[in-house]
Amino acid sequence: MGISTHPDEAKAFNKQSERVTWHDKTLWFVREKRDKSVHQLPEWETLRELAAQIKAHTLSHLDDYLLQFEKQAKKNGIKVHWAKDAEDHNQIVKDILIKHEAKKVVKSKSMLTEECGLNPYLSNEGIEVIDTDLGERIVQLAKEKPSHIVLPAIHKKKEEVGELFHQHLQTDKGATDPTYLTEAARQHLREQFLTADAAITGVNFAVAETGGFVVCTNEGNVDMGANLAKVHIASMGIEKIIPLKKHLGIFLRLLARSATGQPITTYSSHFHKPKKGKELHIILVDNGRTKQLSKPDFRSSLNCIRCGACMNTCPVYRRSGGHSYNYSIPGPIGAILSPGKDLNKYSSLPFASTLCGSCTDVCPVKIDIHTQLYKWRQIIGDKGHLPPSKKWSMKITGKVMGHPKTFHIVSLLGTTLLKSPKMILNNPFNTWGKDRDLPQPKHTFSHWYKKQNKHEEQ
Amino acid sequence: MKNNRSSILDTIKHTKIPEVELPRIPYFQGLSYDILNYFTDMLYQLGVEVINGENLEDLPPIISHLGYDNQLIFTQFCELPYRKKIKEEKLKDISLSILKGELGVAENGAIWVNDYKLPHRALTCIGEHLIIALSKKNIVWNMHEAYDTVQPENHGYGVFISGPSKTADIEQSLVKGAHGARSLKVFLYG
Amino acid sequence: MKIGLFIPCYVNQLYPEVGMATLQLLEQFGEVEYPTSQTCCGQPMANSGCEKDSIGSIKVFFEAFQKYDVVVGPSASCVLHLREHGVKLFPEAKEVIDKTYDLTEFLYDVVEVRSLESYFPYKVALHKSCHGLRGMRLGSCSEKVERLPNKQRQLLKMVDGIQLIFPSRRDECCGFGGTFSVTESDVSVRMGNDRIQDYMNNGAEYITSGDMSCLMHLEGLIQRQKLDIKIIHLSQILSSDIKKKTEQKAPKLTTHA
User: Does A270 touch chain B (CB under 8 A)?
Assistant: First the structure.
């Protein structure tokens, strides 16, 4: 009780039909750009396979690679921290900031800090966090959460952004031109970059061989933030590690093409050493990843490079919106990561899919997302997290289908029932019949077949 | 939080995961024989203006022509007549940065820039406009070849730049000049 | 060849004409029998998170179809379910499941039909069911960089008079998804309506598919809104007018043996 489910949230989202149309079209546009871009590369499927193998290999030696990374990074002068969970992570960040008497922090996009709830934590400590990715700044000003991992404000219309900027950044009332609004954000955020005491970034790839890491952006906010501030803290999930520098070639070719259809992001920034007189910290975060690693059926979900392609392609995500998932990572990948965190709370997410398989085919690191959705459903069923009505109807259906005689009696009843007036079928409790009719055949196929055969035998 | 480290590593160590071999990366051929043409086409698609020249000496008149004469210009090239050292508080006033491109990648228009002779790392992004000068000889086909050549581990900081800073976070409308350079020109010489 | 006719439970109940069309098509290739003890592939239970409740139906399937050379059903979804999960749930059924085919696979791959004598003079859009497309790879999907023959389209191209219509989104899901259509009905309905609009906008008179479940969902929406478009199963198009023609001359179907 009290847990909002995906169907509830999706229902609310679908009350605004035109908004659904718009949301769906906007994301489909991104998916089409992705298609156009990947179909130009004859080796696309080979790259996916290589990426999946590199990730699988890395996960089978994760401890070794983390140690190698730590050793190299320390040699480079980077300070390495380890966090078991969100709380550890947040505390490590806080301690570094307090040591440097930092009052204002600029942060570039990091789904991990979102997962750890870093912003509210730091603001409780009196430290101001400014999200610098434009989309994230928009949702931050609106006091919302990102609805997409690559396009955090994809649910917002330019009119809403205009109003928000009018309130917070003093843009003209009613102004909605994206160029004008982006310029206002540029001016506002330049000021923040120049006056921030520290910068927090995410990590796209960390290389064990070199002890460095790569962060990808289009806006350049990582480079502005990390390069101007005295302290740079990079937070990464332990699964972000890759063994060799040359593997970056594979992943950078896959990432942006999958995410937005660009051949590469505008900035692919490589950090290996702190600038003289400055500090560079890396926090290696577990927060449930080792738990997921221990589950063979769900291990490959740790391959994820956070491109967002599964969201753009998912026909359910496009028509229910990222907030309907109520998890820091929405969409199909979120629906296989979240049950590992809290099976009961997120038990409706693996069912927010038709199992169409588009997510699996679009995934640049070949995570079998829809198979994992199916597997989570079984675990949710086994552990008793299904709604009772579903559980019992499936038990009964199973029994009926397992006994041909019962089945035929029930199926005769079924066709009789369908002949009754539509009124019965279309009652408010019948979700199928609310918007859909069912055919009303005169007889079943088996009935016809038996009659036919008798006729022939005679 | 020292015990975090051993606890995470121990948990991983005790998780039995079947060995998966590291794959060999095959050689990936380019999509065109004319690598320079492909590269410039790609830059054009990314909203980058390409300027062709013989050598670096061709640059100053072009920059004058572009109207930067009385503005603050930074460069990484000692042979160019612009500022090579800039105080931190002056960074924000830079109108134009001229950086040295080490390597261009034809498949995606990305150019490798690093912090060698870069007094401040923010110089890759803080100037209002950016010119990257790249020798025509230093263009490779794809990212695999690029990583065979560039050595990010030898530099504290380096970045592949593939265009002006941009965003599409407001209704997917592409806008140039988010936080970094508003425009990028690539000067191809040699 | 002794062919066991596998008719999915909902087709049996709601779309007997699809069963008849499939039977009629299959009769060209062997002796077809419909074992009346069959029930269901078990997918509804399994996709709802209760796959263990479906073991009984897989057992029934195994017993009903053991004796045939091949088993053919007009549903990629049900056949795919048996392949992906049936063997794991009831290993004895492997031998039977291995010889079970969706109608498209049977026609295109097993008996290699390359021409038909059917006639269907309408504008038809092929709705690619996700289980057929991405599960069985009956064609190449838009996400992957691959070129596979689009088997259903190849079959439809053999039909006289047909005009194939292409939607703007060539392989988006219709939103049926089994119990998804009920538990997530708002999104499901929306997805279905979007597909129908796409087919209508491109001038289709009929939507066809190898999976009746997608069509049942779409038809439900079409009828409720009284839209000017119809649904028809692939088997019905492929067998249309055969009867009339075959009364005059044989053979009805030619194959590359």
Answer: yes
Residue A423: pLDDT band with limits 50, 70, 90: low
Nearest to A220 by CA among B136, B141, B113: B113
What's the whole-number mean pLDDT along residues A227-240?
Answer: 98
Domain enclosing residue C158, as ranges: 123-238
d(CA A97, CA A322): 32
> Are C142 and C68 members of one domain?
no
> How far is C160 from C158, CA to CA, in rounded Å?
6
Average pLDDT value for residue range A420-446: 77
Please state, rounded to an integer, the average pLDDT across all residues of chain A: 94
Same domain, C93 and C184: no
- Is C117 inside a domain boundary? no
Q: Which of residues 4-43 of A touch B (CB under 8 A)?
A: 26, 29-30, 40, 42-43
Strand partners, A236: A284
Number of domains chain C is built from: 2
My answer on whether C83 and C142 are in the same domain is no
C248, pLDDT greater than 70: no
Q: Show the low-confidence residues of chain B (pLDDT under 70).
A: 1-2
**Binary contact (A403, C56; C-beta < 8 A):** yes
For residue C118, being part of any structural domain is answered with no
Q: Residues A425, A438: contact at Cβ < 8 Å?
A: yes
Cβ of residue A318 closer than 8 Å to a chain C Cβ: no
C189 plus C84 within the same structural domain: no
Decide which of A400 and A167 is more confident.
A167
Mutate to test the interface with A, among C23, C187, C226 (most CBs of A within 10 A): C187
Q: Given pLDDT bands bounded at 50, 70 and 90, which one contains residue A407?
A: confident
* Neighbouring residues of C218: CB distance < 8 A, sequence distance ≥ 6: C127, C174, C192, C195, C196, C207, C231
Q: Which residue of A has its CA nearest to C62?
A: A402
Q: Which residues contact B155 (CB under 8 A, 6 or more apart)?
A: A270, A272, A273, B114, B115, B116
Which pLDDT band holds residue C244 (cuts at 50, 70, 90)? low
Please check whether residue C221 is in contact with residue C3, taking contact to mean a CB–CB distance below 8 angstroms. Answer: no
Q: Which pLDDT belongs to residue A400?
A: 80
Instruction: Note the pLDDT of residue A3.
Output: 77
The span from the CA of A318 to the CA of A352, in Å, is 12
- B-chain residues near A273 (CB < 8 A): 155-157
Cα(A367)–Cα(A304) distance, integer angstroms? 7
Neighbours of chain C (3+ CB pairs under 8 A): A
Tell me the whole-structure pTM to 2 decimals: 0.95
Q: What is the DSSP string of B76-130?
A: S-TTSSSBS---GGGGGG-SEEEEEE-EEETTTTEEEEE-TT-S-GGGGT-SSEE
Query: Is there a single domain that holds both residue C53 and residue C103?
Result: yes
User: Would residue C93 count as lying in a domain?
Assistant: yes
Show which subunits contact A, needing at least 3 CB pairs below 8 angstroms.
B, C
A411 touches chain C (CB under 8 A): yes
